[in-house]
Amino acid sequence: MTIQQDIFNAIEQNDVIIIHRHERPDPDALGSQVGLATTIKATFPDKSVYAVGDGDVGNLSWLAEMDEIPDETYRDALVIVTDTADTPRVANQRYNMGKMLIKIDHHPNDDPYGDITWVDTTASSTSELLMSFIDSMDGKLKLVAPAARLFYAGIVGDTGRFMFNNTTPHTLETAAKLISYDFDPTAVNQKMNEITLSQARLQGEVFENLHIEQGGAAYTIITRQRIKELGLEDDQVQAAVNTPSRLGNVLAWMLFVEQVDGTYRVNLRSKGPIINELAKAHNGGGHPLASGAKAADKQEIDQMVQELITIATNYEKE
User: Fold this and answer.
1) Are 219 and 308 within 8 A, CB to CB?
2) What is the rounded distance in angstroms from the CA atom of residue 147 to the CA atom of residue 14?
3) What is the pLDDT of residues 182-231, one digit of tens each?
4) Cβ neighbours for 101, distance < 8 A, ≥ 6 positions apart
5) Domains in the chain and their CATH numbers?
6) Phi/psi zone of residue 189: left (φ > 0), alpha (ψ -120 to 50 degrees), beta?
7) CA–CA distance, 130 with 120 (Å, rounded to integer)
8) pLDDT above 80: residue 21
9) pTM here?
10) What are the TM regions of this chain, as residue ranges (predicted)?
11) CA of 291: how far to CAs of 15, 145, 172, 259, 317, in Å?
């Protein structure tokens, strides 16, 4: 029996299913979470299926909203966590209150939690992985247009509109299948490309203040004061993460985003050098070319910058 069949059996055998995703959701987190919930509801109309997170979903409310449920709902429930590599990042820590837990993810499996753990790092996104799950069930799971829209958004988001090297022939085949359903992919693409004027100004400041070091390593610091001056919410700062990728002489980069407590959330991205080990060394992790970490202070920022320079310089020599 395959792990996909094990997951299907768990879904089939449970009347209450609660699906979680990671905090600070991106399109794949919401797409995989709510896309799976929508698919289960369409297949098993009599089941109670919920998508749960902490608070609202920021500027992705056009994609999906969360359900609010009491603790009692978790009693005898199957809980599924999608697109979340490690338990501290699960949005809403009640995920472990159910009777059974399943992890479905495409990040490196550094924290193999759950009674069933299905991780495939070759998938571009958890949305693509869930489409493989649906296909493997030979019609036992019903894919409907609202779910197709969500999975499509997840794939577009995690592939950088098919520009990242995680885009495979299977990724494009899956996207082609999804857009055959009755939703407007152009509207999804346009919405995902949309930013506010304040976000556009932040992107301009990233270009203006970007430090480009030896080997094409680059970084910039986004202060709490500037975030406040621009009137941005924390989730809106993410619009600037990939801004340095457009510069030909930048190979790998970090954005240090100051938090309320004076620490920094660090976004690491790369065009080639592996940077997730650097992230792991600083309370983070993620994909080889796209990771997140934390820096306690300016001293740790300086340390991380030097480590990135070493990685980029060594890559340049290879």
Assistant:
1) yes
2) 21
3) 999 999 999 999 999 999 999 999 999 999 999 999 999 999 999 999 99
4) 79, 80, 81, 95, 113, 114, 115, 116
5) 3-193 (3.90.1640.10), 200-317 (3.10.310.30)
6) alpha
7) 11
8) yes
9) 0.92
10) none
11) 36, 31, 23, 18, 23
